[in-house]
Amino acid sequence: MKFLQPIELRRQDCASPARGPMPVSPFVNLYAKVTAGCNARCPFCCNAMMPPEESDWDVDKLFDIIRELENQGIKVTRLMVTGGEPALVPERVERIIERLNETDFFHIHAQLNTNGLLPASQHIMRHERWDYISVSMHHYDLHRLSELYGTVIPDHALDFHHINRQKMNVSCNLIRGYIDSPAEARKVMEKTIQLGISRLGFVALLPMNEWCNQHFVPLDSIGLEEMSDLMPTFHKWDLASDQPEAAPLCECRNFLYGTAEQPLNIYIRYKSTPNHCPSLLSYDGQHLHQGFGNDNIII
């Protein structure tokens, strides 16, 4: 197996108030986009209500790529199974899990990204092989969430029966008219605790289309830093290794909310550079790419 171009790798980790960036060994995080199809019609997403593709999706090639990366001294730290909605192609996900359970790949941190709404979604969420499950929940009220998703969400959709909630994370987009204020953000925090999930990430909309531009909410507008019952726990930023004096490429903070019995870890990225993709690869079933675009084909 021969790569068509060199892989761009991170050479240092993030800086923090306690120290500057430190050198890191070669690694990549790999996204496996198992489908562009989705059961929802989210207006901020390019995958809205797309059917799953009929084309072949080569699972074995994915693991051949992982083996070749590691033969070249590049550790595959995480494999993130994403879409679209992965539950629309459960047989692909099952085959990936089967391969991940092989001894050669058991060291890889396995993550599932899903909206969690389909029975098939919750079936694949129950696999013990997942180290982390990220569930999209862009509103605390199911009726508003149905409105946003353009599909009826059953009342029991967020019950998550027999799913290990200690592995789960809620990802919530800030959207004007939905979650766009400190009061609304707090309701999402309380809903996440009510669900028994201990991690929550707030995310700003990317400029995918005009709807996103019109409904964009700046991350600092929800005022986490001003909430007296939130405790800052971590602050880090990523600097370009060849321009250490330039502005950070991205910046994020973590907070702790809730009680000792029901703590909630909150993550928020204040600044990001979408085209900054060192050590980030994506696989679409046939080709390996640097970053998320359709170009930059590595193999």
Give a description of the structure.
It is a single chain. This protein is an alpha/beta fold. It has one domain: Aldolase class I (TIM Barrel). It contains six helices and eleven strands. The protein has helices spanning 59-71, 90-100, 119-125, 142-149, 182-194, 210-214, and strands at residues 27-33, 75-82, 109-114, 132-136, 168-174, 199-204, 231-238, 250-258, 263-271, 280-283, 288-290. The radius of gyration is 19 Å and the shape is globular. The mean pLDDT is 91.
For the sheet with most strands, the description reads:
11 strands, mixed
Integer average pLDDT: 91
**End-to-end distance:** 8 Å
CATH class term:
Alpha Beta
How much helix, percentage-wise, in residues? 10-25%
Uncertain runs are: none
Q: Taking strands numbered 1, 2, ... along the chain, how are they ordered across the largest sheet?
A: 7-8-9-6-5-4-3-2-1-10-11
C-alpha geometry: globular
Number of domains: 1
